[in-house]
Design a protein that fits this description.
heterotrimer; A alpha/beta (262); B alpha/beta (366); C alpha/beta (184); B: 366 residues; alpha/beta; Rossmann fold; 8-stranded mixed beta sheet; 5-stranded mixed beta sheet; 16 strands; globular; C: 184 residues; 6 helices; 6 strands
């Protein structure tokens, strides 16, 4: 099988805009799932509300498209009630970190055996481009028309602090690395969190000087700071550029986990 | 062989759930329901089930829906403020036709209100609290015995009708201890599994589709969006939405004769009490203390869907008297169905109506 | 015959447990009916605690205590809040080591806390002393039923101590009965 065999072909075409990065992230995730050798009937995709959360509807497994922010709480019920099921959650920055922030930190704390892929486009895409908890300072959105004045969350730092066993961040540019990170997440017992920074040309890019889709992808690539490099700068006592974000495997550990088969 | 126990209502509720085969409890502590969670926390792991204390009631409700899709009989228990938080996902359960049991040990509201005092102020919230049109089943116990029996029954109804089923108890019944006779076993009617080759949200004549349990190869897509019979989102199709929501309502409302659970005493009476939950006990005392009196009584155990046809059993009724621990929530429902006066007898604050208070109302006459 | 028993004391004395044990004795071992209720406040310790039991040979319809005829009072505050209104026809068992007031009805002075501390070495069993005295003086349940219900309800390893406490209560009640119960 390849990742394409996991699609629910009778649901295509999908609703994502031209140039959206979500498809890339879904493909990377399914490629990793495919490598796990899991059967479709023992795999469940769960999501909340938003563009990212439409993903499970395109995948030919049992799938649960839930309420806004609550995907992790639903997924906790699925996993704890049947530990034989492999449960993967798709979410976005608004879904996970705003309305679902409490569920996020508690799922990390429980270290429940889920793999969570967060498509972070730094905006509310489906509702037309409102600011989210990861919208960078000064960026424009329909609810930050004078520039975002609130400092954003670092979702990976949040996941690490709250107790997740595996945490990685990549971007829609880094497809190979992202696929490997999801695979590592799927293989790691406990809570795995993979943040995929991605472009949203419709709601974010066109308001923030990314005229072309590729401009935003190039920006994500150029502002990715490899973890090894970040660590080196840190050791050398050098300043880490404030507009850059760290990519790579940020945590891999073995805290006690829930929902893992004995 | 039955056995006798001296149990608290909340213990009886938890034991009724265990007897019915509940294997998943997701909850959050809240007075006066907490003993149910504590009892499940102690008992479920020993029976191979799962107890999980979630971060709030929103998550509790979500977790039991997730568990239900794996085929588990799942439940949560809460009270007023937690019940309000659950409303969002109760609507999701209604839309996705997820069987689950929600216990509300009612306390005085609004807001934090009276955590340790009984009330029946959430009767309308349980029927209409989540947004949009839908229908649910609600059962009201008036004794420790009924806490056990109606909880067990709630699981069968949830599986049969694929709806959230509410056990609308109150602090008085939840916290009191009394004699209870435990049966050897309770009836368990299994959930009807979806047949292969049938669309997962295609219903037959009973308007209830077979259940596509996760992990069985159905590859079902479950969404809170308006969906077609395949389960696929179809949120702008006018007729499809109308027909889906009509089916969600009709599958319960059309079954109200089958779902009805009530007792009729003195059907020829002119003065008729109607009660559910704890106030039943006050009315029973009034009838006991005035034997031979021409006082009718309708005890309702299935409050939703409302058994309107039961009211017609009192052909000579000149007046219905409705003691409730709220300002007439069900009295108003009764009013919709009858042509004689309906007298709401509200009592708030946590105390049950005293029998002499009800007698005084009777004596004041029409 | 319906009896309504009201227990009061301060939080931590085992007022609630006393009521549960009495109800349990009636239902499980004397084949009677009982309903136990209590007042829940936000405080877990201290304050005036109250619990009640109704015991009847017939099924109990109205479950709340409205006209208590038996009082078990274990603190002065409990007396003032829940005991001072006892009608003349009632009977009260009071812990004379902690309650200074006396009611307008028949009453039994049982120095339960003092005896529990001095004779039994644990004031925690004062409520069981009171139960023994209550059952001996009123016969509301049988002594055998009370003993079984106590053994069902107390922590493992404390059975002997609690049985002793119950017997102490019976003894104290008998002493009062011999000298004539107090009437006002």
């Amino acid at each position: 099988m390849t990742f394409e065999d996991w699609f629910r072909k009778d649901r295509l075409p999908h609703i994502f805009c031209a140039g959206c990065g979500n498809g890339t992230i879904i493909n990377c995730t399914l490629a990793a799932v495919d490598q796990m050798g899991w059967k479709k009937e023992e795999t469940v995709f769960v999501s909340g509300i938003g563009c990212s959360s439409r993903a499970p509807g395109y995948i030919m497994t049992d799938s649960l498209h839930t309420t806004h922010g609550r995907a992790l709480a639903f997924a906790t019920g699925v996993k704890m009630a049947n530990k034989n099921l492999h449960v993967v959650v798709f979410t976005g920055d608004g879904d996970l970190a705003a309305i679902g922030g409490n569920h996020f930190i508690h799922a990390c704390r429980r270290n429940i055996d889920l793999t969570v892929v967060c498509m972070n486009n730094q905006i509310y895409g489906m509702t037309g481009g409102q600011g989210s908890p990861t919208t960078p300072l000064k960026c424009l959105s329909t609810t930050t028309p004078y520039g975002c004045a609130e400092p954003p969350f670092d979702l990976c730092e949040l996941a690490i602090a709250a107790g997740a066993n595996y945490v990685s961040r990549w971007t829609s540019y880094h497809v190979k690395e992202l696929e490997k990170a999801v695979l590592a997440g799927l293989q790691t017992p406990g809570f795995s969190f993979i943040e995929a920074m991605t472009q949203c040309p419709t709601a974010f890019g066109r308001r923030n000087k990314f005229r072309q889709v590729i401009d935003h992808v190039e920006y994500l690539k150029a502002h990715s700071l490899l973890k090894a490099k970040r660590d080196r700068l840190f050791e050398e006592g050098k300043e880490i550029p404030p507009d850059m974000f760290v990519v790579g495997e940020l945590m891999r550990r073995n805290r006690p986990a829930m929902g893992v088969l004995p | 062989m039955t056995r006798t126990e001296f149990w608290q209502g909340n213990t009886a509720c938890a034991e009724g759930a265990l007897a019915a085969g509940c294997t998943f409890f997701g909850g959050y502590p809240i007075t006066p329901s907490t003993e149910i969670a504590e009892h499940m926390a102690a008992k479920l792991p020993k029976k191979g089930g799962v107890f999980i204390q979630m971060e709030d009631e929103i998550a509790s409700m979500a977790s039991i829906i997730g568990a239900s899709w794996t085929g588990a009989r799942s439940m949560t228990a809460t009270s007023g403020p937690g019940f309000s938080l659950m409303m969002e996902n109760i609507g999701f359960a209604a839309m996705t036709e997820t069987p689950c049991v929600v216990v509300n040990v009612q306390r005085g509201g609004p807001s934090t209100g009276q955590p340790t005092m009984g009330a029946q102020g959430d009767m309308m919230q349980c029927r209409f609290g989540s947004h949009g049109d839908y229908s649910v089943i609600a059962l009201c116990p008036s004794s420790v015995q009924e806490m056990y029996e109606l909880t067990a029954k709630a699981f069968n109804l949830a599986d049969r009708y694929r709806v959230p089923v509410f056990l609308m108890a109150d602090e008085i019944v939840g916290h009191m201890r009394e004699k209870i006779i435990i049966p050897d076993s309770v009836e368990k009617i299994p959930r009807k599994e979806l047949e292969k080759g049938v669309l997962p949200f295609k219903a037959g004549d009973d308007l209830i589709p077979g259940f596509a349990t996760f992990g069985k190869g159905h590859h079902v897509h479950v969404t809170g969006l308006t969906h077609d019979e395949r389960g696929y989102p179809c949120a702008t199709n006018v007729n499809l939405h109308h027909n889906l929501v009509k089916r969600l309502v009709d599958k319960v409302e059309n079954a109200r004769h089958d779902l009805a659970d009530f007792s009729v005493i003195n059907p020829d009476a002119e003065e008729v009490f109607i009660a559910y939950g704890a106030p039943v006990r006050a009315v029973q005392q009034v009838l006991h203390d005035r034997p031979g009196q021409d006082i009718g009584f309708l005890q309702i155990r299935t409050v939703w869907p409302f058994p309107d046809f039961a009211l017609a059993r009192f052909k000579n009724a000149r007046r219905f008297l409705v003691p409730e621990l709220n300002f007439g929530q069900i009295a108003r429902e009764i009013e919709r169905h009858v042509n004689v006066p309906v007298l709401s007898i509200p009592k708030l604050g946590g105390d049950l109506h005293l029998p002499r208070e009800l007698t005084a109302v009777l004596e004041r006459g029409l | 015959m319906r009896h309504e028993v009201r227990f009061s004391g301060f939080g931590g004395q085992g007022i609630i447990l006393s009521a549960v044990i009495l109800g349990r004795a009636a239902v499980m071992y004397d084949n009677k009916h009982a309903v136990q209720t209590q007042v829940y406040g936000p405080e877990a310790r201290g304050g005036a605690s109250m619990s009640a039991v109704i015991i009847d040979d017939e099924p109990i319809l109205f479950p709340k205590v409205t006209n208590p005829d038996i009082f078990v009072i274990m603190s002065q505050e409990g007396f003032e809040k829940y005991g001072s209104d006892a009608p003349a026809s009632a009977v009260m068992v009071l812990d004379s080591s902690l309650v200074h007031s006396r009611p307008d009805c028949r009453y039994y002075e049982i120095a339960a806390t003092r005896e529990a501390k001095q004779t039994l070495g644990k004031d925690i069993v004062a409520n069981i002393v009171m139960l023994g005295a209550l059952v001996r003086s009123t016969g509301i349940v049988s002594v055998a039923a009370l003993e079984k219900a106590i053994l069902d309800s107390v922590p493992k390893g404390t059975e002997a101590l609690n049985t002793k406490a119950m017997k102490k209560g019976i003894e104290l009640a008998e002493a009062v009965m011999k000298n004539g119960e107090k009437k006002v």
